[in-house]
Amino acid sequence: YHMIAKVVIPKMDALALKEIELGIANRKLAQANSELQEAQDQLDAMQEKFDIAMAEKQKLQDETDLTKKRMDAANALINGLAGEKVRWTEQSAEFADEISRLVGDCAMASAFMSYTGPFNKTFRDKLVHEYFAADL
């Protein structure tokens, strides 16, 4: 028994000492894990805010790109229509000229139809010289 006690008691004392050290190390580990969890929670919250901010940034960038495309299209349309303004102004002047001549053209057409109609030469000459020429 004495031989066993000489060998076992120091080992038991060493075991008790190591168990105390293990308890201290486990408490330190639990504290470190608690701090790690707090830091991880903060990191997760910050990552969520970052993701939201990046999504908002992407949304604004997409809106900016769409607005730029619309602006380019509007500028292209305005520039294209600027060339048409000259043509429209010329056509407007031509239409005004045609409208001013419309009554005379109608009168000429009516006179021609009357001249080539069922009337004889004497009556046609009278219409042309007495009435039509005076009206023109």
UniProtKB/TrEMBL annotation:
Residue ranges of domain Dynein heavy chain coiled coil stalk in the record:
8-132
Single GO MF annotation: minus-end-directed microtubule motor activity
| Pfam families hit by this protein | MT
One of the protein's GO biological processes: cilium movement involved in cell motility
GO terms for cellular component: 9+2 motile cilium; outer dynein arm
State the Gene3D superfamilies in the record.
Answer: 1.20.920.20
Residue ranges that the Swiss-Prot or TrEMBL entry lists as coiled coil: 22-63
Q: Which InterPro entries match?
A: DHC (IPR026983), Dynein_HC_stalk (IPR024743)
- Supply the alphabetized keyword list: Coiled coil
PANTHER family noted in UniProt: AAA+ ATPASE DOMAIN-CONTAINING PROTEIN, DYNEIN HEAVY CHAIN FAMILY PROTEIN
What's the protein here called? Dynein heavy chain coiled coil stalk domain-containing protein
Q: Which organism is it from?
A: Hemiselmis andersenii
Cite the source lineage: Eukaryota, Cryptophyceae, Cryptomonadales, Hemiselmidaceae, Hemiselmis
